[in-house]
Amino acid sequence: MPQPPYPDLMNFLLDAVCVVNEEGVFLSITGACEQIFGYTPEELVGRQMLSLVYPPDRKKTLNAVGRLMKGKLQYDFENRYVRKDGRVVYLMWSARWYKDKKIRVAVARDITDRKSKQGEPAATLPGQSSRWRLSSSPPCLIPPDSAPILLSRQDYVVLSTLVSKRQAVSRQEIVEALGHDFLDYDQRRLDTQMRRLRRKVEDACGLRLPIATLRGVGYHFYEDVEVQA
To answer: Membrane-crossing residues (predicted)?
Structure first.
């Protein structure tokens, strides 16, 4: 197969072309990825897109994603993202949901300079915290001094059950919180979910999820957690 005449052309784009799956996880990024986000494509693939969104803009971003996945094309949606260096940038997006392929393709352009000339104040990050935080809206886990990690409903239920008590939580309590009958539940599913959740957190922020497995008992979240509505 012949190679394109300009194989590095994508590197000169002013925009970043992002492909994410149905859960909002980066599958690929081409174009001005590092210029816009401060991360290389390799650093972003596998991460939740929402984890980079400036916290006050997450709700409207989720609403826009909901409209997009119902078939509405997105041409000029604006929100703010937190770069790797901590700087907050304004982005303008055009996006489309491909239902048959279960992917979203979105093109981002940095419009921070334009916003500054229009008198928009520079956005800053809220004070960082040395504690783990669990939020219900949207469901996410916020590691110390790190961006939020978006959670599935099951992951949120498991974590909220664990942090509701200071002592160990039994497997039966977790299974029943998930809405299942303990005697009929395949225990391997819970082990698999916990391994996946630990890996998800470590991949996202480089920290170990502070949950201890207590053989014959259950699990214990052994660090203080701030629960946010």
So the answer is: none
